[in-house]
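The freezer alarm interrupted the setup, so I double-checked each line after restarting. Inputs confirmed:
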Amino acid sequence: MTKTLSIYNNEDSLVLGLKSRNRAAYNYLYDNYNKALYGVIFRIIGNEELANDALQESFVKIWKNIDQYQESKSSIYTWMLNICRNTAIDEMRSKGFRKSLQNDSIEDVAQKADEVNQHSPKTDQIGLKDLVSKLKSEHQVLIDKIYFEGYTQEEVSAEFQIPLGTVKTRIRAAIQNLRQITK
Amino acid sequence: MNIQDYISSGIVESYVLGLCNEAEKQELETLLPLYPELQAELKDTEKALNMYANSFEKSPNPDLKSKIFAEIDSLEQADIQQKETNSLQIKPKFNFAIAASISLFVLSFAGNIYLYNKWNKANQELIVLNESNRVLAENQTKNLVRLEEIQTQLAIVNDNSFKKVDLNSIQNKTEKLATIYWSPNKKEVYFSCNKLAKPEDGSQYQLWAIVDGKPVDAGMIPLELSDSIFIKMKDFSSAQAFAITLEKTGGSENPNLEKLQMMGGI
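Predicted 3D structure, all chains:
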């Protein structure tokens, strides 16, 4: 993401601008985050037309619900990403796509992840291969299931055949791995 | 609480990924302002996941931006109309409160005049009437004080600027022990007791506001409590959470976190 020079480069001013429904702030938000947000939505939905609709729905939700955002609980970017993820995941569920993905074995998903890595377009997803190739594949599959498919702790427990009580520590190990390579 | 054990349980990662249930979420959000190491952990976890998300960057349709802003324009219009309707709906409630209090006042006042006239007419009943008049006047004063309290409470409850913060027990997280009504605009903080055990001799409950991650004294809870009364505490223009600890009578400068009784985030 290359950011333009603006007062909104400061997160506090951006949040203030967004909460006061300042049009320039929303312009800045769109210009600087559309690719990142769309990338996540597209990764979940996999269809350009539906992904564009979902980004529109998400962006309007951000505008509508900005008063609910609390600086003390998360960064504005995380909050927006969560809205996009939830919107896209709901879209998939409403269309009944969820079930077919659930039936994939871990190997299939790992295979798919490899395919995405190999065939990723050169410009937009340039960092993906570097980042994902450093991440252990078991950790990537776990993070993707939760982050892109909206798996609950119970579903992770069933899919990976690990006791519910150890799901949290397993997720922590995966994120620790991700933290190391994104440092 | 051992914060390192709490962090290594993986709760922060589950929180950022949206996997926590409501109770876990509330617990983390109330602990957050108290422990800088928890804040750091949350920030690093978010950062790593956000960088992961960034690696999937892709451009949407070029005409999407204008479509989005056209939708926002039309919503903005509808929003303004909605606000106008809302402001009309709030007024009748407040008028009702004023009307109720005035008629109660008029009623008790009329009672007094009636007694005063009778006292004038019947000298022989002077002593008896004097006494009943005194009682009535006393009740009237009590009623007026109570009425004033109820009016204040009603005004707070009806006032949209007041946030309602439930303080839940640390031992039993689902148990609501007290409620804080706080208006950041007016800075006013009110404490309302729900279910509070009588403190041991020599100790007293103390309210703390968590401001920018630091607990700040918000005043003492009086030893004698009536459960319906709102108690005005110290003023605050900003706070992220409220907590109550058990301190020595008269209060302490810094909270004793061992004796944390209840807390609630905003």
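Quick read of the result. The domain at 104-183 of chain A is CATH 1.10.10.10 (Arc Repressor Mutant, subunit A).
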